[in-house]
Amino acid sequence: MTKDTSPSIGKSLNIVREQFPSLNRPEIFFDNPGGTQIARQSAARIQQYLMECNANHGGAFNTSIQSDSILLEAHLAMADFLNAARPEEIVFGNNMTTLTMNLSRSLAMTLNPGDEIVLTHLDHDANVSPWLLVARDRECRVTWIDFDVEDCTLKMDELEKALERRPKLVAFGYASNAVGTINPVRQIIQMAHSTGALVYVDAVQFAPHGPIDVQDLDVDFLVCSSYKFFGPHAGALYGRYDLLDGLKAYKVRPAPDDLPGKFETGTQNHEGIAGVLGALEYLEWLGKTFGSEQIEGLSDRGYTGRRLELKKAMTALRAYEFELSRALISVLEQIPGLRLYGQADPHMVDQRVPTFAFTLQGKHPRSVAESLAMENINVWDGNYYALEVTTRLGLEDRGGMVRVGAVHYNTLDEVAQLGEVLKKIAIA
């Protein structure tokens, strides 16, 4: 095997940070789980679209033709990012929540009274409420899968028992947006499919942190949002072609019946979709600059072209984020009165994303967030729409938790600064 000479992200972080114009400010961005900063390439694509080919879909004139060409390229790029079999399996929309609400209406028509839906207490509410509404409207039964409050991992024995009743749908997250847990996605999909269930995966929190291969996972539906992976506020849904093709869409009558048009209702956010393309072009650049096809034998797994570069990028940034996760665990464990929720073993950072939630004894989460903001450190507080998580942990009526989330443009120095400020807050 040829020796890998690719530079590591951690040792060349200045090159990465130059791709994010908003980082040239005093703020330290640890609010990334709610939305990352936008890459220069994404912002450029948005501006270029609006200035050069801002038009509606399907026209005979030049700007519309150019616009459609960019939208097609965005579908192709998103298919490459997720390793979908074809671009028609990619549906763009406002965000993960809106896409899931819309598709859940179509899936609801395939369910009957008494059918079972499996949900988890570890999920963002966007992968909970749509299915609760379906269950209400179609008189379906909902079975909940709990998680261990000590390490915030799903109770797989409960899932196994629930699958014995042969549910029609299993919905769960790739990674928790609250406590960072990465679920055993492939295992859950295999278990669900063995009983005939369809699987709907919320990959919003995992997408910025590691490679996703929908074909390898054999997942039925998977959804993510580009503003979590360095792009604009937009969402993308992957659905297996035969499933999307067979579902009835809620749409206006003149809208196309073919894919993906029948699910991309009305005039889309074209400039936003162009921005998604730009975000993926940034990641492609990252793969070419820092990735190595020797990592995990990516080229041997059949990835070529842009698909290979994107997988190289996500593998390379994940390796650097392991360093950030270990540093965050070390810093947070030194803060007096701080309780960290979720996986806290520095040797098991591969089982979580660098999203950490905690409480500080005697301090309301909002107060902690405000104190950090005064020091130009941006973090979230509350439940971040992971209502089931904060309720299960007994924290919903106490203000939830403080959430700190790193991505690959964050630095170890920023982690250290966070620790210094938190110590001051803890003893104040």
Question: Would you mind describing this structure in some detail?
Answer:
The strands form 3 sheets. A 7-stranded mixed β-sheet has the order 2-8-7-6-5-3-4, sandwiched between helices. It has a 4-stranded antiparallel β-sheet with strand order 9-10-13-12, with helices on one face. Strands 1-11 form a two-stranded parallel sheet. The model has no long low-confidence stretch (mean pLDDT 96). Helices cover 40% and strands 13% of the residues. With 428 residues, the chain is an alpha/beta fold. The protein contains 14 helices and 13 strands. The protein folds into 2 domains: 237 residues, 3-Layer(aba) Sandwich (Aspartate Aminotransferase, domain 2); 109 residues, Aspartate Aminotransferase, domain 1. α3 crosses α10 and α4 packs parallel to α5. 50% of the residues are buried. The N and C termini lie far apart (55 Å).
Show the helix and strand layout.
Blueprint: H1 13-17, E1 28-29, H2 40-52, H3 62-82, E2 90-93, H4 96-108, E3 116-120, H5 129-138, E4 141-145, H6 156-163, E5 169-173, H7 185-194, E6 198-202, H8 214-217, E7 221-225, E8 235-239, H9 241-246, H10 270-290, H11 305-333, E9 338-341, E10 355-360, H12 365-374, E11 377-378, E12 380-382, H13 387-392, E13 401-405, H14 412-427
Parallel strand pairs: 1-11, 3-4, 3-5, 5-6, 6-7
Antiparallel strand pairs: 2-8, 7-8, 9-10, 10-13, 12-13
